[in-house]
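Researcher: Please translate sequence to structure tokens.
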Amino acid sequence: MSGSGVRGPGSGVPVGIVGDGVEDRGEVGDLQPHQTPDPGPRTSDGGRPGRCLILGCGVVGALVGNRLVDRGWTVVGSRRRPWARESGDPCPAFPVLAGSVLPVGPADAILVAANPGIRRGRDNGVAALVTAARHRWPTTRLVLVSTTSLYGDAEGGGVAEDGPLGQDPESLALRAIERAVEGHVDALVLRATALVGPTRTFARTRARAARLAGTPLTIKGDPDRPFSYLHDDDLADLAADALGGDLGTGILNAACPHRLTVRAYYQQAAEGPLEVLGDGSNQPRRWIDAGRLWAQRPAYSWRVLDGPTREG
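Model: Translation complete:
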């Protein structure tokens, strides 16, 4: 995409993905896609950075919070359980509280970055968390990290924010989380696609194991379907800017302009020759059209995975 600021192949971006080859993150009910203009940077008062609460603070929350700390914000994170950080996980430069009680005190911005668990057969109560946050801080800037996995099939075409949504129970549950934001006076839902980065090791581990064993790797669906992705650090940049008032309100797809096929993704992750087969199951065939976001970030340098670009 011309003028996108995409970092070219060979930039050394680590690969990885949430889930098993398709995105697994947390739709905004009846909110209209990106319905208001960018109001400009947000500060608490007098031009100073404000106080941000990060609910469901894991990898993404830590990356966002550290960016805000660097910008002079006061940040407090919370999560249901203590964080058993693994090798490569970011270290929060701010306190992260464990427990089911919402943090107290004023807030100039709130980030909800909790993994909903829906695609893994769980319900981590994110809809209730969003509702509670809205009631406690009814006028505070609210940013929800959601997922593009709720989009339905587009026969290999692109889906923008008004694209077809899945009607399966999991997609409907994800819609309910976004719907909890509906009516908040200052809210943005970032629909992030498949997340890649150094902490996303599931696909990389599978692909390398198959290559070393000399066996084909079988994945869900058609391996030649489009694969859109977004690096953790790119999502963190976007979310930090959004918490400061950037990117407006409503719904906004978040994806790198560069995309692959699922086959090319796994072959790259294998770091060597690998035969990738599909299991014949019916998986959505579509790529994520984040044109509204790209238009607002024409000079942004996206973190790009090596591999041939999928055109359409």
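Researcher: Any highlights?
Model: Residues 8-47 have pLDDT under 50 and may be disordered.
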